[in-house]
Each structure stands twice: as structure tokens, then as C-alpha cells.
Predict the structure of PDZ domain-containing protein.
Amino acid sequence: MTTVYYVLGVVAFVVAILVSIGLHELGHMIPAKAFGGKVTQYFIGFGPTVWSRRRGETEYGIKAIPLGGYVKIVGMLPPGAEQLGEVSYDEHGNQVTRVRKSNTGMFTQLISDARAAEWELIGPEDSERLFYKMPWWKKVVVMAGGPSVNIAIAFFLFWGVFGTYGNPNDVGPAEGRPVLSSVSQCVIPASEQRTDCTASDPESPAAEAGLRPGDTITSFNGTAVTGWDQLRSLIRDNADGQAVIGYERDGQELSGTTSTTVELRPDSATDQTLREVGFLGVTPQTVRATGGPLYTLVQMGETAEQTVEALIYLPSRVWGVGKAILGLQERDPDSPVSIVGGGRLAGETASTDLIPQDAKIAILLLLVAGFNFFIGAFNFIPLLPLDGGHIASALWEAVRRGAARLRGRPDPGHVDAAKLLPVAYVVATAMLAMSVVLIVGDLVVPLSIYGS
């Protein structure tokens, strides 16, 4: 059954990502058509076509490599000089624009070829439906529609989890008298990354006092305990003094006597500075924070900060994955993963016996939400061929034309995005290289929910 659950987890994740990709492309296609644009293709995936069907002027289909998708909006690039005034007819006698001229220079030729591909079968009837002729704000809506859908998917998934299961990354002690979740059997120095006791480890004060998981702490050295923060302060301030602990177990009031020990421990969950404080060896039961739309937006704001940082350091972290592939270093647990790595994590989550069923569903939903949030944010980067590159071009067009009007100068016309194609090719090559490294890394040195 473990294998079955693993496969189901992988399939569920892949299907969720493919649905997200499809919705992303709908985010482009629907406003493009609403604004009168002509959309000739809507495909999920790349490579050879697996299935397609034409509805009206649009061909819908699925391709073999499920690593993205696209919609073909006619007229993304304005015509160059070689396109203007050059008209011919196809075998059916229909008037079409065709390109026959060529240019010298590598980048010039690349731009020319791109225009040729864009304009080869654009007919005069398409003149008023070309994307580049749309007002700048319509271009922004069309191009922002895709990544905005991903952000919206992430929001609703996060909200669904936070509003029901709770946020596993926002956990705190339960209110009221602290109920013990665990009791350390020995004292392990904070600097040592282990949880198992050895023969040389001294017995913990909590174990010496006879405390067990599930006990409710009621007093500490005669002071009534009302909450975990209060108890934590009493323990830390007690240094190596005697500790008389009152607790409740199965409805009975009991007490135990021990002496806390002085240990180097982190100052708090957010401040990992080690300080010498009193140590008992207990942890309280915790609860996950829950919330609605406003809480979700606040949490997504924090996620956005982390995502921006991840995007800034993405090349260096991918480089680290490459070094891990070659065996030069261990893979960083915080390194990025591809859809292959996401599928593996989903499979492990679904098949493990270490995670409760409700937690598995929450984790899988959060995994899909996280991928959607990252995809949305990544696509807003203002570089072609990403959606953000087209948005930046449209905004620059608005600024340039607005400035010309204010200064009483002639309209400079549409921004020629084709001139930025050399940048697009470099960015696309870098994206492809990073994708290959991450996919290979997820196969050779995969991350795991059990630790790397």
C-alpha cells in the first residue's frame, strides 16, 4: 500500500500543477479574447502534441512535456521594416503578409526571424486584433492575468488550510496551564544536533521529578502556573536551584522535586543567541494558528518577502545543487526543487506513516500553494520571455507616450518588444539550464521529508 499511496501522492501533485498551468494560461487567454485579440493556440506542456482539437479560431491541446504551457496571441511583436508593405497571396488566393528579407548580424537575424514567424500568416483581416496595437493597460491586464491566477490559487489554498487545519508554520503553546507534549529523558547540549540519549548524558531534571507527557503543570516552587510563558520564565530564572513542581495527571494532584540545571539554550524561537539559563527538559503541547482572509494575506506577505529573497539567490542556490550533484557538497535542505522534486515530496508525504492523515492533506495543499505562489512571483520578473517582461514593455510604452503628450511631441508609437529578444534568449537559456540542474538534482540528490 505504501507504493500505491506514493504514486497517488505524485499523481495528485502533478495533476494539481497541470491544472494550475491550465488556469494560468486561461488568465492570459480570457482577457485577450475579451479585448478582441486573436488567440490561435492554447496548449498545456511543450514538445510533441499528444492531443488537440480546434474550437473556432483556437486550437486547444496537450503536449508531451508537462513543464509549462502557452497561448498564442497574434501580433505580439510589431512589424519591422521588412514586413511593411510586403504583401503576397497563399494557394487559396488569400492575402497574407510574408517575409522574405534577411539581415546580417546574429542578433539582428534573430529579431528578423522572430518577426517572420510572428507575421508569416497574419492577414489583413487581423489588422485591428493584433496584440501590440492594444492600449497599454489592456496589455498589462492580459499579461498579468496568468501569474495573478497563480497568486489567487495560492491564496485560496492557503486560506483553506489556515482556516481549517491551521498554519503549521505559526505554532504556539496552547492557552491556559501548560500540558506537556514531551519530556526529555536526558540533558543534551544545544550545540549537538541529536535527539537520542547516550550513556554519558545526565538524566534530565524533568525525568528526575517523574514528569510524563500529558501532565498539566499547576505550580512551580509554590507559584501557581497559568501559562507556558510564565513557566518558562520561572524555569530559566531558577538557574540550578531546587524546583518543586506541582502537576495534574489523570485528575490527581501530584508533585515532584528536583533541581534545574544551568544550560546554554536559545534565548527564544526567533533569537537563537545561546544564554546560560535554568533547564528542566519539557516542551508544551502546541496549537496551530488559524485565520481567515486577512490572516492569510498577512502570511502571504511574509511568504512574498521570502520568495523575493529566494529569487535573488536562486542562481547561487541552483549552483549549490549542481555542486551537490557532483558530490562536492551536501545538498542544502532549503535549496529549490523542480516539479520532479515536488512530486517526490508529495509522494513521500502521502505514503509515510509518520504524518497524520489530516496533516498529509494540509501539507500537500500547502505544497501546491507554494509552487503556485513561486510561479506567479517568478513570472512577474520584468524580463522577457516572462510575463513581467511584456508588462514592463507595456508600462514603458505608457510612460513614453504620456511624456510625449505632455511635452507636445509626436507620438513615439508602440514599444518594439522584438528589440529585447536577445535578452529573452539569454534569460530563456538560463531558465532552461537551471531547470535541467534542478531536475537532475531531484533525481540524483533528492530532498526528503525525512531530511536530506
About this structure: Residues 2-34 form the longest helix (33 residues). The chain is about 45% helix and 20% strand.
